[in-house]
Amino acid sequence: MCLKERFRGYYPVVIDVETAGFNPKTDALLEIAATTLQMDQDGWLTLDQTVHFHVEPFEGANIEKAAIDFNGIDPFNPLRGAVSEYDALHEIFKAIRKGMKAAGCNRAIVVAHNAAFDHNFLMAASERASLKRNPFHPFATFDTATLAGLALGQTVLAKACQTAAIPFDNSEAHSALYDTERTAELFCHIVNKWKSLGGWPLADTE
Predict the structure, then answer these.
(1) Is residue 52 annotated as part of the catalytic site, yes or no?
(2) How crowded is residue 124: how many other Cβ atoms within 10 Å of its Cβ?
(3) Most C-beta atoms within 10 A of its C-beta, which of 51, 61, 73, 86?
């Protein structure tokens, strides 16, 4: 069993974003992290590599005070080492295309907790940056909130991780890097649990 066979040619990439609001068209993207996954020869899914960037607000971006009060990010702190949306996504996409090629997959798919939010911000930033080679599916996602609700009876990331015996430090939450890696562990746990219960590979029913 290999990664491309498990997800119908899709290359799952776990994404988390921190933002200055809820509107991907008008509100600033402030932080993004992406974790790629790998599958061993026995079909078990594990984390591979993580790429993480602090991001400069795009020109004219809206910044909601309530949002930055919540995530604790000072968008204009020079110590953040922030880069442009173009530079962040260019590097992330380059790493993903390399991983896709190695895995023999033909398209990346966003894995995220409440995935529509992260996917929408990712796509809006990619469009603003005029990146022509976006490896991600334009609308399909794997949502770990939905998967965790099914598999663990929990939809909040922290509670789902705790139920799955994945350590989760609430004081570290709302960092794109931390949340991405915990989400990746959660996704791997659910996929591997389904395999261990006999749900994959699919039984031959003939």
Answers:
(1) no
(2) 18
(3) 73
